[in-house]
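Lab meeting, action items carried over

1. Structure of the two-component assembly. Owner: GW. Status: complete.
Input record:
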Amino acid sequence: MKSKFLPYYLIAPVTLFLLCFFVYPFLLVASQAFSSGGDGYSFDNFSEILSYWKFPISLKNTLLLAAAVVPVQVALALLMATMVNRMEKGRDMVLYIWTIPLAISDLAAGIIWLAIFEQSGFLNSMMHALGVIDKPMNLLSYQNMGMVFLAIALAEIWRATAIMMVILVAGIGLIPKEYYEAAEVFGASPWKRFTKITLPLLRPSLQTALLLRVILAFEIFAVVAALGGTLFPVLMGQTYEYQFDLLNSGAASAMALVILAISIAFTIVIMRSLRVPKGIQI
Amino acid sequence: MKTNKKNLGISIGLALAIAAPVASADILFWSTQAKPVQEAQAMRTEVLSDYSEAVDYQPNDGGPWQTRLQAELQAGSGSISVLGALHGDFSALSAEDLIDLDDLGVSSASTTFNDLAKLGTADLQYIPWMQATYIMAANKKALAYLPKGADIDALSYDQLIAWAANVHEATGEPKFGFPAGPKGLKHRFFQGYLYPSFTDGVVRTFASDKAVVAWDTFKELWAHTNPASTNFSFMQEQLLNGDAWIVFDHTSRLADAFNERPDDFVAFPAPAGPEGRGFMPVLAGLAIPRTAADVDAAKDLIAYMLKPETQIATLRATGFFPVVDVELPNDLPASVIATGAAVAKMSASADANPGLLPAGLGSMGGDFNRVFVDSFERIVLGGQDVRTVLNDQKKALSKIMKETGAPCWAPDAPSKGACPVE
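Predicted assembly:
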């Protein structure tokens, strides 16, 4: 069995799985997006979704959320990863606790934060009990869009920072101790060591973590649905609406392709800017 | 590699062996109605348990309901026997996918309903099953603030606004409640209540000057509406927790309030505008998809659902009223008594101006609703200019009417061909 084909045998099941459950449905969705009712292919679905008045708003909301959430998550994940790496005792325990939000579904996470922010929620009761406010306020209303945005961003940061941290912890673990020892010998400060050793050598992990997070940020849906309802339209929410409320699969497929296009564009940007030249390894 | 293949074979075999016996012989009743757990359970234990054969009652959200039905229709064979859904759900289907039910010999007592059930064809595509409507309800604490000279059973929109304003002033909080949440039925208020009351139409008059007055009036009411309404979907919850004192909603979405604390709340007819008291009847029906395994068994079940005893049992289980002539017993739930009286007053009022359910829109029913929901979001929540928004939304509405070719329905004047947006 030690033939040169062994690697291909081994990846065959995964390839087959992906062909059946990813590539084939993707082709179906793509053809649905470009077909309109009758015969032939057209851009009707795209012109329909792009001309809808909510499209620019949901695009703006999705991009704004990603722009607000991802940088905070990168910073937090880096901080958490370096902290965990320095720990001598209880490292595993802290890691487990920090990754708990990962195990919670995004809808459940949205509902947890709804329980905090809603009119009869924990935040209101706490402020009321402390005498900060006279009566419970309605925080998540259309008059308070900033608050809605903040609540969604907070929930996302709480929920999805851990996935970046896990990747970065693994990456930091791979950096040889010798570099740090050499730097210390030459008297480099901790900050210098972080910017000159950790960050550059962490590039491959950072790339993976950023890619994963940015793509997921464009697919945000359940947290927004729980906290913002219809007040805060996002691209994925619009896709759901086309598919299930309007029963318009063509438009839903077109929306999905638009999200895919945005994801691919950002993937290319991230891959380019954090490129790890081939052959350079730790 | 060989062992791998063998294992794969074994596991596939196992999976098939486990999956096969799941298919059962019960009649599958695939429904969008009576979804709350209690109602679904009541359907099973109170309504369907007396039927001669075992029925598997499965209520679902509209999306999954459609998805499975469409999958079975596309596959050409299926396990769904009977469909239970709203008129709007059926009109989104193709009439060819439903079996004609004229030979069943049962139908509702209302010719309007029977006509609707033909879905624009010559034959009954579904059998009217049960009906409901939307009404108003209030906490009795609010009654003290009724404006002078106002009769709660014959309110006008101006009186309703004055009433909500009085309550707002007295309690310091806006206490009118409106189901504007993601699952709320706000679009039906605009289609069946606001527009008929102010413009005596829905489609033709969508962007008329009278419609501008209607939206301006609604904005006045909104000033006294709990701003959290954009999260409200079942107004019984806000009635019970006191977040809203005066509310509008579907009768079955108010039922819990009356059943839990019957002495605390009153039900009353919707208000009247310059063109009368607009209101919209809701109609649910039963149909058989062309892929049903046993059509005769399905027809028997539908005939059973239309029996007077079954209709009364359904009323108890779901709060939806019978569509056939029945004598209502005296021991009905509090919600049925309260809402039933309000519905009767509303439909019998001298200025009643019923707005029928949208018909002939096919799968564009959702798009039609979206025109009204979007107008609401832009005018009321977004504060955009009424005239500008209506002129803009008018294009979307006009496109829907042209694409579907749906003729006008009451209260719009009849049209030849597609209903025009004037």
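2. GW to write a short summary for the group page. Key points so far: Chain A has one domain: 54-273. Residues 58 and 234 of chain A are 4 Å apart (CA to CA).
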